[in-house]
Please model this.
Amino acid sequence: MESQFLVSVRLRREDVTSFGEYPFNLPAIQTLDALELHKSATFLVGENGSGKSTLLEGIAVAAGFNAEGGSSNFRFSTSQTHSGLHEYLRLSRGILKPRDGYFLRAESFYNVATEIDLRDSEPSFGPPISRSYGGSSLHTRSHGEAFMALFLHRFGGHGLYLLDEPEAALSAQRQLALLVRLHQLVSSGSQFVIATHSPILLSYPDALIYQCSERGIEAISYEETDAFTLTKRFLKPRCCVICSSNRVQNASLSQVILYARASPSTSTASKRQATSSRPRYSSAARRISAALRGVMYSPGVPCETRVRCLTSTKTVTIPSSAIRSISPPRTR
Model:
């Protein structure tokens, strides 16, 4: 506790006049009492609109940061859109004071970059602010490069860093780089509070994770987060329909293989198909292929069209009703 800058956050519930108005009507805020923060990293997760960014914004403003982001020295405003939650939060601080600090708000970082350029264009006895961000204007870099310049150059360690969806501009590889940088900064005495959807960032081991949901706000493990479970479910080999004879291929959702054989029929279309050297998709197979990962729906497409598959060829049987329940997309 002595080594952390923020120990806990408490909502002064006795001062809230109505829990039926924003932001107090958000379940995560409505049920908030005291939130213990980890000395290294605290993550806030939850679905869009769950209140995690609202809570982080309130903590940031209560800690003395500008609502649109930046260090505690920034006091610009392009629009007064932040809530008044900060007025009802009480921060419990540790003995130590941070030597550095920053509030990154992904959606308004462009405004921060503009403010830096504006200040650098004015006469000053000090060095340009952009020198702390790698030496050039953030507007001359890509979105992701500007974020990384902030993390690598501006964050100096022994600081309090509040980050709202820092993964927004970053590729998976850059998120891994941020994870390494996060550990470097924690090792140099820094503390983070991060709102994120990234399973990569959430994997940081020395951390607390709080989930904001309709049930309120509660501590959960990494493996219980939606970011982890949904990503794992998406990447895990799973069953996908591969043909009109009710067979299933053990393939990942993004690696579907489809062998479509027309089923016997006395229809005119089937008779025409019988005379063709290249059999066509049955209607069931077309419905399946269109429903799975973007295989183009087109009447009369010849069979044996394959989508790359790198998994095993084990097949099992499923009820035909499962096939008939898949409706074909509307054609133009």
Summary: The CA atoms of residues 12 and 218 lie 18 Å apart.
